Amino acid sequence: MDREGTVYTIQSQRLDRLEEKIDQMADAIVALARAEEKIHTLSEFNRQTSEQMQAVINRLDRVEAIVNSNASTVNLINKVFWVVVVGLISAVTYEYIAHLGS
User: Is the pLDDT at 32 greater than 90, yes or no?
Assistant: First the structure.
């Protein structure tokens, strides 16, 4: 082989190696783009999940306030009920004692 053929072969091998490196870099860039897309998707999902959790927390706070209000109302109704029951028992007892004495 003459000198020109040897130079051509060496240059061809170098170009092949460069091509291979460029192909590897292209694959790496595609992989990075996919990873970035996944990260973006996960970030969006995380944001939506956080918003939904905040909405649930807000609803839970409103329900808790309503429950506390209802608990006060039920407590008042319970006290009124027992006052009425005790009053009825007292009235029946009074009538019973009043009829026994006559």
Answer: yes
As a whole number of angstroms, the distance between CA 84 and CA 71 comes to 20
Retrieve residue 23's tokens: 């192909």
Query: Which residue, 97, 16, 65, is CA-closest to 57?
Result: 65
Q: Which two tokens stand for residue 19?
A: 């091509």
Residue whose entry in the numeric block shows the structure tokens 């019973």: 96
What is the Cα–Cα distance from 12 to 9, expressed in whole angstroms?
Answer: 5
CA distance 37 to 45: 12
In this predicted model, what pLDDT tens digit does every residue of 63-72 receive, in sequence order? 999 999 999 9
**Which two structure tokens, joined as six digits, stand for 54?**
């905040």
